[in-house]
Write a structure and sequence with these properties.
Structural class: alpha+beta
Strand order of the largest sheet: 17-13-14-15-19-11-10-21
Number of helices: 22
Mean pLDDT: 81
Low-confidence stretches: 86-99, 460-468, 624-637
Length: 637
């Protein structure tokens, strides 16, 4: 399947363009906001080749793709009628419908919109900063060398000017002017103001004393300032005449918000930032070993539930106010716990496809991207996810016990972020303890998974010599009506044989009967399609009507459920075919052998004539049959 085809199927299965409010993407996920999540066909999306899983969290419908998410996103956007760089359109496809959100979903949405756009640059700059520290510790570079100074400027700029960058990001979150927001962030870190603070000067604004503070590398003051800007701009847009808005709304916004930021917003939020950092470190200081064990043990579960967004501001705030953060140091090993479990699963795997997936996910994990591991390897095999969490818990305990800390940046995970845990003091016991925590998490997860988790074996459909032997089989008609060739069905998926060979029936009775002894594989939620498997290995799809999924179960009454055993002639479904026709739908029922490739020959025993349920309809055989009937069927199917 091409990227374009996958993108089109995803859009169709989430309910089409009309059901999408907005779309963004992160490292591994397409993050939709849908008007109605119940319309999305989650199970069908999960089964797409190229999709790992689907998650509903924080008001978002997240389709997990993996490393190719950007490629798929680039294909989805044109389908939605948007340019890839059309940020405003992407975030506001439909602003007319306001979603009802609980407090937690609103908080997650705010935090993710604030920090998701900048996490990549923050992590990259942090890694570069860590590498420079490693270079100075090992003597490769000195702090006075030109190479060091230029690369350090590149690594430190995003942190030093964080208020400007977050100002731009916060503007999108609070729906206000991003360029004006960046200017406010720039005012907070303006060199003259930073110099005045460093020199201890006393400043007054219109006679009011200003409490000067250093706002470089801070995050909460600028977020609060931009929230204030959004309120001020909304009010000014109401009172300023339309002809003057272009100049006077930005002018008055700056005149109001910048002074208030220096007088009130900055000092208050900076104090709150300090209190938050002190509180976090106080709690951590009570029992760092236990804190590491507990937090690291549950961290990947927190990520699955979207709870991790609440920690991102804490990490960054600790760095901004204290210069270090011990929390992320305790959690960093969780990536290696997942990698250890994934590597063990790849070693044990007997399924070639799963082995390939797990090896690829392991490599991604070493680079700090754990979603392919979690959603493709460990979470589907729950025991391995548990083993990874156990290994992570012990690793976190060691990091807490050794006092490991992250310095001067933000590390998102993986081997390249390790140097960020070396402080200016160089390699010491806390950094060695940090390294041990990674090794312990990886090793425990690896060993436990190897010993306690069963290997992944090929699924039946992928295994030659399946436990269900495919043998010759006669298939009875599940309906009463008129037999039609597939080629006459008004749907290319069926008429061109994409789903497999078979036949169609125009029903004269709204009842469906089991055409053989076997089991129910699936019953579509809208009840219009049933999947059966015979004891002889025939996999049969009975699709009642065309496009009848849109009826959402109306006029259908299933008598069975997935997993049930059925006997030939057993009533399995009732439907009101006259009412379905009245609602404007084609009532033709395609009957498809979906595993047609398992048989050498499929014959229609009755064609273009009336039939009663229970009469012989199809024959699936592993013997070549060149009779006239089969030739006709093959040409039609």
């Amino acid at each position: 399947m091409t990227d374009k085809e996958l993108a089109q199927k995803i859009v169709d299965l989430v309910g089409g363009k009309s059901n999408v409010n907005s779309l963004i993407h992160c490292v591994t996920r397409l993050r939709f906001k849908l008007k109605d999540e119940s319309i999305a066909k989650t199970d069908d999306i999960k089964n797409l080749d190229g999709v790992m899983t689907v998650i509903k969290s924080g008001g978002q419908y997240q389709v997990v793709i993996g490393d190719k998410v950007a490629d798929i996103y680039n294909q989805v956007m044109p389908i939605l009628g948007l340019k890839i760089d059309d940020d405003n359109a992407a975030e506001n496809i439909d602003n007319n419908k306001k979603e009802k959100k609980n407090i937690w979903n609103s908080l997650v949405e705010l935090l993710s919109s604030l920090f998701m756009p900048v996490l990549g640059p923050l992590a990259s700059a942090g890694i570069l900063k860590g590498i420079l520290v490693l270079c100075t510790v090992t003597g490769i570079l000195t702090e006075k060398s030109g190479t060091y100074m230029i690369l350090y400027a590149a690594s430190d700029a995003v942190f030093y000017f964080l208020p400007i960058i977050l100002g731009f990001s916060a503007a999108k979150a609070f729906k206000t002017d991003p360029f004006l927001s960046a200017i406010i962030g720039g005012a907070l870190v303006y060199p003259n103001m930073v110099s005045a603070y460093s020199a201890g000067k006393a400043l007054h604004f219109m006679g009011i004393p200003v409490i000067l503070m250093n706002y470089t590398q801070t995050l909460i003051p600028i977020v609060a300032a931009i929230y204030l800007l959004s309120i001020v701009q909304k009010y000014l847009n109401k009172i300023v005449p339309k002809q003057l808005k272009g100049i006077f709304v930005p002018l008055l916004s700056l005149v109001i918000v910048v002074p208030l930021s220096f007088l009130i917003v900055g000092p208050v939020t900076s104090t709150l930032s300090q209190w938050l950092a002190d509180a976090v470190l106080w709690i951590y200081g009570i029992a760092p070993t236990f804190a590491g064990f507990l937090l690291a043990g549950i961290w990947q579960l927190a990520v699955l539930l979207g709870l991790h967004w609440a920690f991102i501001p804490i990490f960054l705030n600790n760095i901004a106010t204290k210069g270090f953060d011990p929390i992320n140091a305790m959690l960093y090993c969780t990536v290696f716990g997942q990698v250890g479990a994934a590597l063990a699963m790849s070693i044990k795997a007997k399924d070639p496809k799963f082995k390939e997936l797990s090896i690829s996910a392991t490599i991604s994990g070493f680079l700090g991207i754990t979603e392919p591991i979690i959603y493709g390897v460990t979470l589907p095999h729950k025991k391995s996810f548990l083993m990874a969490s156990i290994g992570s818990a012990f690793g976190g305990a060691i990091a807490g016990f050794s006092g490991a800390k992250m310095f001067g940046g933000f590390a998102s995970g993986g081997i390249f972020g390790i140097p960020m845990f070396i402080g200016n003091h160089g390699i010491n016991s806390s950094f060695i303890g940090f390294l041990i925590s990674l090794v312990v998490a990886f090793s425990i997860a690896l060993v436990l998974t190897l010993v306690l988790v069963p290997s992944v074996k090929p699924s039946k459909k992928d295994t030659k010599g399946s436990t269900t032997e495919v043998t010759d089989s006669s298939i009875e008609s599940p309906l009463s009506g008129t037999v039609m060739p597939l080629s006459s069905v008004n749907d290319e998926v069926f008429s061109k044989g994409f789903m497999g060979k078979g036949v169609a029936i125009s029903p004269t009775l709204g009842e469906v009967y089991a055409p053989f002894d076997g089991e129910v594989v699936s019953v579509f939620p809208t009840k219009h399609a049933i999947g059966l498997k015979s004891n002889a290995g025939v996999e049969l799809l009975i699709h009642i009507g065309l496009d009848t999924v849109n009826l959402k179960g109306k006029h259908f009454d299933t008598q069975i459920k997935a997993g049930d055993t059925v006997k030939s002639g057993q009533l399995i479904e009732k439907f009101d075919y006259k009412a379905i026709q009245k609602d404007g739908y084609d009532i033709t029922v395609p009957i498809i052998i979906t595993n047609s490739n398992d048989f050498k020959d499929i014959s229609v025993l009755k064609s273009n004539q009336s039939i009663e349920h229970g009469d012989d309809l199809l024959n699936a055989s592993n013997q070549n049959n060149d009779d006239e009937i089969n030739s006709t069927v093959t040409s039609h199917a």
